[in-house]
Amino acid sequence: RKISAEETVKECVTTFSRGAPTQACLSANALLTCAIAPIQTECGEETSEWVIKYVTKFATAIDPRCKLASQLPIGKVIGVGCTAEEEAIIEHCAAPLNDIGARMEELFQGGLQAMIKNVNSLAPVFAGGCNLTDEFRQCAAFLLSGRTPCVVSSCMIHAGDGICDQPDPTKAIDDNLSCVFAQVQEPSFAKCVRSTLTTVKQFTLSSFRNILPKFVDCTEEIVRVKCGETPIKACLFV
User: Fold this and answer.
1) What is the pLDDT of residues 18-43, one digit of tens each?
2) Which of 28, 47, 164, 166 could form an S-S bond across to 130 if both were Cys, CB 3.0 to 4.6 Å?
3) pLDDT in tens, 211-233
4) Nearest-angstrom CA–CA distance, 54 and 68
5) Whole-angstrom Cα distance, residue 116 to residue 83?
6) How many Å apart are CA 65 and CA 56, to the nearest integer?
7) In 3D, which of 199, 208, 57, 13 has the Cα closest to residue 122?
8) Cα separation of 19 and 136, whole Å?
């Protein structure tokens, strides 16, 4: 109740509670997206898991096809509220882009230190994703136009915003990654790393995505001042 009264969450709760049955899946996803991170922080993991289960049960009872973000595969382009034919189009168009997600999963194996050590390996993966994102947009143009109820998961599609439109995306990625990780020398940034990322027992892309909202909240101010908005936006879409 305390969290639902906060302005950042209140609107999502209102939309979810007043939404039409046809919008149940979208409003449920929106609610979880804006509410779970503060619930985890204020109320703990057990409470957040209960909320996820409750919202999931509600949404899938109304729309059995509904896919909640917590159930989605990591690093894949997914359709929500789509017909079988639309799902087939997404699967076909997104196949090359989904391979990027699989490669990212590999880079996260070996824990946090291994990921930091291999940070230079992320640049070519992200750079390759820029071209593949353009190809996906062209291939699935009809579904992305908003003319059907089918909604395409935007995380992988928007992760390159502010980078893919640069003259040299690889350099832009290197510059942004280098800037973010250089902040570890700052005491406040290092404290955020210790209180969020290093608390993860098994460091995978999935666990990284779960802890990322807390990490972004903690480091957002210093990253915005030192590196600008682009790294923050990229993190929010992982």
Assistant:
1) 767 777 777 787 777 777 767 776 77
2) 164
3) 777 888 889 899 999 998 888 76
4) 12
5) 40
6) 11
7) 208
8) 31
SS3 state at 8: helix
Angle subtended by helix axes 24-43 and 7-18, to nearest 10: 140
Q: Where are the alpha helices (DSSP H) in the chain?
A: 7-18, 24-43, 45-62, 84-107, 111-117, 122-139, 141-144, 155-158, 169-182, 187-195, 205-227, 230-236
User: Token match 């990780």: residue?
Assistant: 181
Spans of all domains in the chain: 3-71, 79-236
What DSSP state is assigned to residue 152?
E
Torsion of CA 207, 209, 210, 211, to 10 degrees: 90
